[in-house]
Design goal:
By secondary structure, the protein is an alpha/beta fold. 34% of the residues lie in helices and 11% in strands. An eight-stranded parallel β-barrel has the order 1-2-3-4-5-6-7-8, surrounded by six helices. Helix 2 runs parallel beside helix 9 and helix 4 (129-145) packs across helix 5 (156-167). The termini are far apart.
């Protein structure tokens, strides 16, 4: 007779219990009832992979360390890559059955809008005016024509527009839209709105508490992306010891392996090459540390099969009949 599976071990639990400091009990009601369509509760993502050379480093290092990778994402944007570079990235990811996600279009942090440099941050990463929106659409069309099937978006108007284009057949069926961490929702209502605008995967800020994740999961099953270690411009948080609880509360969840105490690299160019390759390598190592920690605690079950990428059935706002998109 097969023994029933044991519950994951709480960090330090047995030793603390023996000296009178037992861990507080976990409430079953806090756990997410949702999974990816393949039945998994978590997948992995290596962010800030800014071109073919950095991608090569990530793929080589992940093979060396045995780190399973479901998704690679890039932050500088489609417009910062040549057609040849995009094609090389698409082909390299296809060989390893890894999803490639590229950022769309112009954004407020780099254009002429000075408000993003004020203390308030102004409109942040949003696409300014019709031309900003059109640039994002142009990037989406170009990237998908070259075989990219996941697009990173930082503006709710761009998100809704790309979803409408997807519904109209202007973008390939199966194209997924991923919401940026810099515009991520911080409450259940806004999370549900972004899902309905067309998001298939939503970054949430890395300072949300486990209770916040539970609140979101009571209204939405859309996959969530969360930095287990966040870059400094997103707070620099390192939440490795919370990973099992983040999965339990936030599933279906993409574990993102960022890097604290590291200068930003967007928009990437050859002048940042050495730093970019070094940090790409270290992001993979950080991911290995997280999965090793989960394994030591018996909490590493539930990973989606490699190659899984689709989000399952999600809720959408209806596209108006006769929509010109």
């Amino acid at each position: 007779m097969t023994a029933p599976p044991t519950a994951p071990r709480r960090p330090g639990g047995d030793a603390l219990d023996r000296i009178g400091h037992p861990a507080p009990p976990l409430a079953e009601a806090d756990a997410s009832p949702h999974t990816f369509p393949d039945g998994g509760t978590w997948r992995t993502e290596i962010p800030s992979v800014e071109g073919p050379e950095a991608l090569g480093v990530v793929l080589k290092e992940s093979a060396r360390l045995g780190l399973p990778v479901h998704r690679i994402s890039q932050g500088s944007g489609v417009w910062m890559l040549t057609d040849a570079e995009i094609t090389e990235m698409v082909e390299s990811c296809a060989e390893r059955d890894v999803e490639l996600c590229l950022f769309t279009g112009p954004r407020g942090t780099w254009d002429i809008g000075g408000s993003t440099r004020t203390d308030s941050g102004g409109a942040g990463l949003r696409a300014r005016g019709h031309d900003g929106l059109a640039g994002c659409v142009e990037d989406a069309l170009r990237a998908t024509a070259l075989g990219v099937r996941c697009l990173l978006v930082a503006d709710e108007g761009v998100l809704w527009t790309l979803h409408r284009l997807r519904e109209a057949g202007e973008l390939p069926a199966g194209t997924t839209l991923k919401l940026s961490a810099l515009t991520g929702p911080v409450n259940p209502a806004s999370y549900a709105v972004y899902e309905r605008l067309g998001a298939d995967s939503l970054n949430v800020p890395s300072d949300l508490t486990p209770a916040h994740l539970t609140e979101i999961r009571r209204v939405s099953s859309a996959p969530m992306d969360l930095y287990v270690e966040a870059p400094d411009d997103l707070g620099g948080y390192v939440r490795m010891y919370e990973t099992a609880e983040l999965i339990r509360r936030g599933a279906p969840l993409y574990l993102k392996f960022g890097l604290s105490k590291s200068p930003g690299i967007y928009p990437y160019g050859a002048h940042l090459r050495d730093h970019t390759l070094a940090t790409a390598r270290e992001r993979v190592r950080r991911g290995r540390l997280v999965l090793d920690l989960l394994a030591r605690h018996g909490a590493d079950g539930g990973m989606s099969p490699l190659g899984s990428r689709l989000p399952g059935a999600l809720s959408r706002f209806p596209v108006p009949e006769g929509d010109p998109a």
